[in-house]
Amino acid sequence: MDAVLALAAVLAGLALRLAIPLAVTAMVIALLRWLDAGWQAQGQAPAPAAPAGPPCWEVKRCPPERRANCAAYMNPSVPCWQLLRAPNGDLRLPCLDCQVFRSAPMPAGVVLSQAHSGARS
Questions:
Q1: In angstroms, rounded to a whole number, what is the distance separating the alpha carbons of residues 16 and 24?
Q2: Do 19 and 61 fall within a single domain?
Q3: What is the pLDDT of residue 12?
Q4: Cα separation of 21 and 99, whole Å?
């Protein structure tokens, strides 16, 4: 009888030793799939629309030579400030002061903090 109880205890210990890590792994996998689905949905969101007003090259009166090498001129469906971001992703200071950027509507769901609210006012 003691041998049966000892065997049952060993089998229960092995089951727990395997079941708990497998359960935790399954939960982590489910969480990562849920996060990935959300990120995929964000990635499928439509790109920001170009401002409704005149394009920046008209507002700034850029000559044809400058337009030939301008990313905003080559991609008029994307806002110019999105194409001309700094390497770290920040908006460049000239864009923050630009008439085209300032006249563009604020995207839905964007809330500016007090520190940044002066940039668009």
A1: 12
A2: no
A3: 92
A4: 57
Question: What pLDDT score does 112 carry?
Answer: 62
Domain count, the chain: 2
d(CA 81, CA 100): 9
Indicate whether 64 and 97 sit together in one domain.
yes
The whole domain housing 38 covers 1-45
Q: Note if the pTM is more than 0.85.
A: no
Domain-embedded: residue 118: no
Instruction: Report if residue 91 sits inside a domain.
Output: yes
CA distance 84 to 74: 12
Query: What are 67-116's pLDDT values in tens digits?
Result: 989 988 998 888 888 888 888 888 888 888 888 888 887 766 666 655 55
